[in-house]
Amino acid sequence: MNLADFRKEYLRGGLRRSDLAIDPVSQFALWFRQATEAGLNEPNAMILATTGADGAPSQRTVLLKSFDSSGFVFFSNYASRKAQDIEHAPIVSLLFPWILLERQVAVQGRTEKTTAAESAAYFASRPRDSQLGAWVSAQSDGIPNRAFLTDKLAALRERFDGAEIPLPPSWGGYRVIPETVEFWQGGAARLHDRFVYRKTAETWDIARLSP
User: Fold this and answer.
1) Which of 38, 50, 75, 122 is most buried, by the most CB atoms less than 10 A from its CB?
2) Residue 32 CB neighbour total at 10 angstroms
3) What pTM did the predictor assign?
4) Which of 146, 175, 190, 194 is catalytic?
């Protein structure tokens, strides 16, 4: 297998300045709807990149659960590695790799925690097993084996049998408030179309970038 032979021309379409919405959230909403209509598997999956106290980068895939003009929201354990990184360095990046559409969206911005009411409302909407899973996992901690998790899940099922499952004290949401948002559309001859929105005091500046 020679990876140099893995080549594909990006021919699905271009992106022009006249195609773009006035703000990045409106443009993202359009592309997200198109990704959903195209049947992409989990179009809300995004790569979250953070930086630890030691300066080391870290990435993982998380799920976008809402977005609007105030930012992009995901949920996690507040004791996890990602949470520790965010506590140290609150500026993060998100990447939506919509490869089948030959598109990417990259977001950079500052994080803030969602309110307790927002976190509780989303937690209440989760399937019961997902709610229990949030109680089971001390995310990013080492464990001896998988049975440790399944035994803990069984105990929690018994504990909360017939009762509402409350929001765990160490679980909630983050909102990424965008400062830059880049839209990337693949192009023939590797001449991709790239536009970046940059937040100014009152509006968004839009610039075309070289591929």
Assistant:
1) 50
2) 19
3) 0.93
4) 190
